Amino acid sequence: MARIAHLSDIHFGAHDPRIVDAATAWLEARRPDLVVISGDLTQRARVEQFRAAAAWLNRLRAAGLKILVIPGNHDVPLFDLVRRFARPLARYKRYISRDLCPFYEDDEVAMLGLNTARSLTIKDGRINHGQMDRLRESFARIAAAKTRILVTHHPLFAMPIGRGGELSEAVGRHEDAVQAACEAGVHVALAGHFHRTYAQAAQKMVAHSGGALVIQAGTATSTRLRNAEPQSFNWLHVRRNNAIELQVIVWDGNAFRRASHVDYVREGEAWTGRDVIDPPTVGSVAMLQGVR
C-alpha cells in the first residue's frame, strides 16, 4: 500500500504560519511515502515568497520525506509583465524545481505531474499536445497492476465550485487532455486550484473519460478560503489501482483532524464509495462530493 499526502494551494504570502507548522508536524509524524503538492506555492510569485516555500520544502526533505511538486498559476508573476511573459516560471525553477513535469515511481504507484500554468491566462490553465504525448509515453511502460496517478494544478474537468453547484471552467484543450488521460490509463487524477475538496468518478463528470477517480484538494494553509471551507489536505491509502482510501484532513482552528474517510472501489470503469466512519462533521467539508 502506498500512503500519499496530497496538499495544494499553499500560498506563501497569504498563509497562516500556525497552520503551516501544524501541517508540517502532521506530515513529519505520519511520514507518508510521498508528499504531493499540486501548485500555488506562492501568492504573487515574489522572491521572498519563493524563499519561504523553498525553506518549507527543505524542512520536509530534511525530515526524510519524498516530494513531488508542480507549479500553479499563482507561481507566475501577475503584475511584473516583463517577467510574466519573458520568464514566467524562472523564480519557481530557481527556488523550487527546474522540473516542471516531474515523474515518480515506486513498487506501488507511478505518478506524473504536468504544469498547467501559463503566461497568457490570469487564472485558467492549459495542457499542450507535447504534454499529452508525455503523459501517454510515461505511462505506456508502466506495469498494468501499478496505480497510475496524474497530478495537475488545474483540474481536467469542470468542477462544482459554488454553493449553488455552478461549474468552473475546465482546463484548456479539455477534450484532448481527457482523451490522453484515458488512453494513458490514468487511475487517479489529483488537482487543486479551487480551494475546495471534491471527489468523483470521471465517468460521472464527462462521457468517455475512462476509469479515473478525480480527487481535488482544498487549500492546505492559505487564508484565502472559499465557500467557508476550512484549510485541508488529502491523505490517500492506495491499496491497488482499483481500491483507494481517501481521508480529508481538516484544520479545526487548533489542529488538523480527520473529517471524512471514504473507501473507493472500482469495478470496470465505475467507482463506488463507502464511508468508513460517520459522514464529515468538521467545518464545511460536509459538502464533500463523494462517489456513492
From TrEMBL:
Q: Which residues cross the membrane?
A: none
Q: Is Magnesium included in the keywords of this UniProt record?
A: no
Q: Which UniProt keywords apply?
A: Hydrolase, Iron, Metal-binding
**What single Pfam family name could you report for this chain, choosing any that match?**
Metallophos
Q: Can you give the residue ranges of the Calcineurin-like phosphoesterase domain? A: 3-196
Which Gene3D superfamilies does the record associate with it?
3.60.21.10
Q: Which GO terms describe its molecular function?
A: hydrolase activity; metal ion binding
Query: Which family does the entry's similarity section mention?
Result: Belongs to the cyclic nucleotide phosphodiesterase class-III family.
**What is the name listed in the Swiss-Prot or TrEMBL entry for this protein?**
3',5'-cyclic AMP phosphodiesterase CpdA
| UniProt source species | Sphingobium scionense
